[in-house]
Design brief:
Length: 297
């Protein structure tokens, strides 16, 4: 594997403090910063990125086993407050006509349990703790995290432009018999300003009507989850990210993913000729992302 550790080349060198460590230019188009996104974002220049595409850890669902991880807050309010602050800083780094695509899933209250058993299929689901039932909710309640977060971000100044339902035709089966199996997550489109860059033609969908070949993309996206052979367990599918990158940026546009994980956003930016900066807290995942970016898929 060939890789060089160097200063963040894509940034204006004068604006990026020389103390920024662990910056790796993985490919010509993609750079990776290892550390807490809250700290690293504060070192980045204003209005630099054209688009932010990311999926933060879900609240109380997965333990990434690393200090500083978001998602392990003991209340949903703390989790949302942490994300609002982080994305406020990210908004500062976003161009005025930039967009922010946020993938987020929901979870249920614990029903009185204080920890979650390891899931044989999905080891990352084991938690050392299980967050207490949020105030005002009952055991078995759906928490509504995506909308709580969306409204909090809206109140913080983001323009909430649309919710997109990411429908997973191959969702994980659930053993529940008192509600439908959950087969979707949310993708929210936010903008920094009232007017913003959005290439609707780049993501048109086929029209049923034969006279009209394609139509404006609808707000339900049917996209199968993609298993990722590495040890990272919450990867979003390339097809989902492809649509966000295509609509949110021009060629050579700059994309930020502050929760890079296995680097899916970077893979698509390489593929579509965009530049990408990814931030990942966990060194082991950052390594996976490097390997994946070099493999190119
Ligand atoms: C849901 S995963 C992202 C997966 C990614 N979209 C992919 O396709 O691989 C969330 C990631 O955020 C990372 N993370 C958690 N807290 C963080 C923080 N404070 N700063 C940066 N990354 C963090 C976790 O280690 C995890 O890899």
């Amino acid at each position: 594997m060939h890789e060089t550790t160097q200063q963040l080349e894509m940034f204006d060198a004068e604006k990026v403090p020389t103390s920024t460590q662990s910056v790796t230019k993985v490919t010509n188009r993609c750079e990776l910063l290892v550390g807490d996104a809250r700290r690293l974002l504060s070192q980045m220049p204003d209005k630099y990125f054209n688009c932010i595409i990311t999926s933060p850890p879900y609240w109380g669902l997965r333990d990434y086993g690393v200090t500083g991880q978001i998602g392990s807050e003991s209340t949903v309010e703390e989790y949302i407050a942490d994300l609002v602050l982080l994305f406020r800083e990210a908004r500062r780094t976003l161009a005025d006509d930039g967009t922010f695509w946020l993938n987020i899933g929901d979870s249920y209250t614990s029903g009185g349990r204080t920890w979650r058993d390891a899931d044989a299929k999905n080891k990352g689901r084991a938690m050392e703790y299980r967050a207490p039932t949020p105030e005002g909710l009952k055991p078995k309640d759906l928490i509504g995290v995506p909308w709580k977060l969306a409204f909090a971000l809206q109140a913080d100044g983001w323009y909430l432009r649309t919710d997109i339902i990411w429908n997973k035709p191959n969702c994980q089966p659930e053993s529940v018999k008192d509600r439908p199996t959950r087969s979707h997550e949310y993708l929210f489109l936010f903008s920094k300003s009232e007017k913003y860059y959005y290439d609707w033609q780049a993501i048109m969908e086929p029209a049923a009507d034969r006279k009209q070949k394609s139509k404006n993309r609808r707000s339900v996206w049917n996209i199968a989850t993609e298993p990722y052979p590495g040890s990272h367990f919450a990867v979003y599918p390339r097809a989902l990210v492809r649509l966000c990158v295509a609509a949110g940026t021009r060629e050579n546009g700059r994309v930020l993913d502050p929760f890079f994980g296995s680097g899916t956003t970077g893979v698509i930016c390489n593929e579509l000729g965009r530049l990408c900066v990814g931030i990942e807290l966990k060194a082991e995942y950052a390594q996976l992302a490097r390997e994946r970016l070099l493999r190119g898929r």
